[in-house]
Structure formats: structure tokens, C-alpha cells
Amino acid sequence: MKITKDLYQGSLALLTDFYQLTMAYAYWKSGKAEEEAVFNLFFRKNPFQGGYSVAAGLDYIIDFCRNFRFEEDDLRYLREMQNTDGSPTFESAFIEYLQNMEFSCDMEAVEEGTVVFPHLPLIKVKGPLIQCQLLETPLLNIINFQTLIATKAARIVYAAKGDAVLEFGLRRAQGIDGALAASRAAYIGGCASTSNVMAGKLFGIPVSGTHAHSWIMSFDTELEAFKAYAEAFPDKCVFLVDTYDTINGVKNAIEVGKMLREKGKEMIGIRIDSGDLAYYSNIAREMLDAAGFPDAKIVASNDLDEQIITSLKMQEASINVWGVGTKLVTAYDQPALGAVYKLAAIKTEEGTWEPKVKVSQQSIKINIPGIQNAVRYSKNGKAIADMIYLEGEDLSNTQFMIIDPVDPTKRKKINTNGLDQEILLKPIFIKGQKVYERRDIHQIKQNAERNMGMFDKAHKRFVNPHIYPVGLEEKLYDIRTQLVFKMKNYDGA
User: Fold this and answer.
1) Number of structural domains found in the chain
2) 239 within domain boundaries
3) How far apart are CA 65 and CA 131, in angstroms?
4) Which of 48, 329, 339 is nearest to 181 (CA)?
5) In a domain, 121, yes or no
């Protein structure tokens, strides 16, 4: 199947906050527009009170950056903006500057499907200050939502313990774009298919679905409805059995299943969408087995999430497939990831890089300065720790100390002998030219599965997960501390 790229064919340069444009104008006005800068995108807390996140959204960002330009109708809109006194908000020379601006940044990013943690740089952008600034809002918009949904999906799939999870949240998603992005991210996070046909076309995600209660209700009897559906789709029969009475619904499904078998076809299974799912799934299993349908699947739906699925598993519910909608595609229990995008370094007139730090009385909000990357150490396919380090650090050293970005009393020594290492930030653009070989959606999903397998179940549990060690390399920690002291006019004495 051909997978469509460049979901957004035209430029979305105005998909930004107005203050990004006012800052861009002020940079230009003050002669700083072309100064070289480095920004990092990261988040401070895992969502859902969990122990990890799953990165998603890079493919959208590649499309956005490849098409990043101000088109004539964008410029016309900006020309028409006025201040309160009626004067133009932006000078015509600035509009001309935007008209001639071409994306020329370097970008590095973690690959989609990578399991990530607070404070790790997910994206690093290096280039003209004005361009870096204008990318802030769209990059955050894309990464925040898709990473959130991919993480939620991974949690739900983990709870299902190998059972298939079907995503069918289109009708409950936040708008058309939210639905498409959610279907994509949910598949990356581990879902087996989507009900969203457009997402299937655009991204190559398998689509699935059977029928609704309205199909049953349109016939005089449930049995008649099941028979008609079996005539239309003899190879894809999953019967929704709870329109009127679940147990009678199972009986009717069995009767039609026997009719299918006489024609050389096999009923795939039944779906239960309401009531006591544990109770009715167990009764249905007994009925199906007794009738000679031990391989028939039992699909459950009805506002499921990882907590409910875990509970049903503990109750030994006879459910093989889980249909999850609202609570997945809306990230029901946490509406936003909260990733941020912070200036990390500016190139001076002398050509050296000056690290920059944002100081806060909340230690969690003090950013990490300098041009960074991150490395993941592992052994026998199991992750041990992640280290954030300054570009140029000699990773051939065998001993490192990493220090927690928020609590400096949490430290870990790493002896790298015998360890595998993976540099997490990969080159995506160099001077505005794409150098990254894009993965298809199935490769991205496989990467997520591989990544999830690298981490112990203690990191993946839903209640009080064990904290995976992520820290600053010692030199980077010292530079950050000194910068904080300097910004606070504190000499440490």
C-alpha cells in the first residue's frame, strides 16, 4: 500500500502563537534575526503518573519543516495587521524578509517509538534565531499530542498482555486533525488497527470494524440482522450481541455461526459493548466453547482504559480483543503532555557558543544549558541508564557519573565496559536539507515494541513505577550549576 507523505501539502507557517511573530519582528528589528541559536524540546514529567513516555510526531515535523515558508496570502494577512493607532504592526521590509526566508536549520531528534523520559532532549534545533523561534509552537503542538497518545496506547497495550487492542476513537476525538494524529500515534504505541479509514489511507494503518447497534435495530429481529450481516461479510463476522439481551445475543450469534460453518466459513467472534464485561464474557466463553466455537474471539468495548483492562484481567474475564476509543484518543485522564522548548545556547560574535539557562525557584523548571545530546546505555538488550551530555564529550571514557537534573543527591556511577550505547538524537535536517531516512508506520511501531522491551516491568507498572535513571554528565551538571549561581548573582561562598 502506498503511504501518503506530506499530509499537509502547503505551508503552515502561520500555525503559531502571535507572540512568536512579535518576537521574530523584534529580533529582526534589533539585528538579532540571523544570530545562531540552539533550542531544545523536552518535557518535565511523564504523563499519567507513569514511568515512561513514547516519542511520536517526528514525521509530521519533517513535513512541516520541508514546507516551512510564508506564502503570499500569509504575507498579505500580516501586512494588514494594525496597531491600536492604525499603523502597520509589521514594517514592509520585515514582510519582505519573511518572504525571502528559507528553512535552513539543523535538527536532531529522537526517533519515533523511542521510550523517553523527563528532561531528555527530544528535539534539538540549531540555526538562525528567528527560525528557531518560529518553530517553537508547531513543534510543541505536534510532539505534545502525539507523544501523549502514543504513551497512552502503550500503557493500554501493556495492560492487555498480548491481546489485540483496536483503536476506534474517531467519533470522540478532538476534531479531524486530532483524530488522524491520534490514530497514527495509537498505532505507534502498539494498537493493532484503527476504525479511522482516512488514517488507514494516509498512513497505511490496518483498519477494522464490524457493525453498530443501529444495524441490529434496523431489522425486525436480532437473528435476522445477524443473518443479513453474515450474507454480506461471511469472512468477517463479529456480531455485536448486547443490543437487547447479551445472552440471547450470544445464542443468536452461535446459530448464525453454525450456518456459516455449513457454507465453509467461520465466525470470527462476538463483541460485548455494555454491562458486566467480566461476567458476560465468561458466560459467552462457556456458551461458545460448548457450541463448538472455542476459537471464536470475544471483543470487549465500553469506555476501556489500562486501569479497567487490568481489573478485568484480574477478574479472569474471557476477553481476547479490546476495543478502546474515547479514553485513548483523548488521553482522557491527562489532557496535555506539557513539553517545553527552551533556548540552550547562543553563538557569540567571536564564534563561540554561550550556554543559556532559565532560572526558577522551582528546580524542575531550570533548563539544561548548552548544545546537548543523550546516550542510552544498555546490556543484553536491557536499558541501564540515559546520560545527557555536552556535544564534544568523549564517550569512549569508561567511567561516568550522572546526576539527576532535579535532585542532585540522586547520582549514579556508570562503568561503560561491556555496555552497548545508543546516541538518542539522530540528524534529521542539516542546513535545512533532510538527511534522515524516513521510516514507515510499521517500522516505527516495531521500534516502539523494541524500546518497550528494553525496560523492566517495574518501570512500566501503573502505580508508583520505578524511576529509570536519567542524569546529566558531571561536567554538564557543573556548568549548569555555575550558570544558575551567576544568574542569581550568587558566588557560592
Assistant:
1) 2
2) yes
3) 10
4) 329
5) yes
Please list the alpha-helical segments (H only) found in 323-371: 326-329
Question: How do residues 132-178 score in pLDDT, each as one tens digit?
Answer: 999 999 999 999 999 999 999 999 999 999 999 999 999 999 999 99
Q: Which residues contact 167 (CB under 8 A, 6 or more apart)?
A: 153, 182, 183, 186, 187, 191, 193, 194, 195, 196, 324, 325, 328, 329
In 114-196, which ranges are continuous DSSP H helix? 129-134, 136-160, 175-188
- In three-state secondary structure terms, 251 is helix
What mean pLDDT do residues 303-308 have? 97
DSSP H or E segment with residue 271: strand 269-272
Say which residues have a Cβ less than 8 Å from residue 297's Cβ, sequence separation at least 6.
238, 268, 269, 270, 320, 321
Three-class DSSP category at 459: helix
User: Which structural domain range is residue 138 located in?
Assistant: 18-149+344-487
> Which candidate, 196, 165, 163, places its Cα nearest to that of 182?
196
Q: Do 354 and 309 fall within a single domain?
A: no
- CA nearest to 304, candidates 278, 343, 340, 279: 278
Q: Report d(CA 323, CA 316) in Å as an integer.
A: 17
Cβ–Cβ < 8 Å for 342, 39 = yes
Instruction: Give the whole-angstrom CA distance, residue 263 versus residue 266.
Output: 9
What distance in Å separates the CA atoms of residue 365 and residue 336, rounded to the nearest whole number?
17
Q: Which of 291, 289, 282 is nearest to 317 (CA)?
A: 282
Proportion of the chain in helix, strand, coil states, percent, rounded to 5: 40, 20, 40
Q: What is the pLDDT of residues 15-62, one digit of tens each?
A: 999 999 999 999 999 999 999 999 999 999 999 999 999 999 999 999
Cell of 71: 506564502
Cα torsion 31, 34, 38, 40 to 10°: value is: 90
CATH number at residue 187: 3.20.20.70
Query: What does the alpha-carbon distance between residue 240 and residue 256 come to, in Å, rounded to a whole number?
Result: 13
393 and 432 in a single domain? The answer is yes
Integer CA distances (angstroms), 7 to 11, 160, 203, in order: 11, 31, 9
Q: What angle do CA 485, 486, 490 make, to 5 degrees?
A: 55
Give the pLDDT confidence of 318-372 residue by residue, as tens digits: 999 999 999 999 999 999 999 999 999 999 999 999 999 999 888 899 999 999 9
3-state DSSP assignment of residue 93: helix
Q: Cell numbers 518560529 correspond to what residue?
A: 134
CA dist 301 → 58, 97, 205 (Å): 31, 54, 20
Number of Cβ atoms within 10 Å of the Cβ of 59: 23
Distance CA(65)–CA(438), nearest Å, equals 14
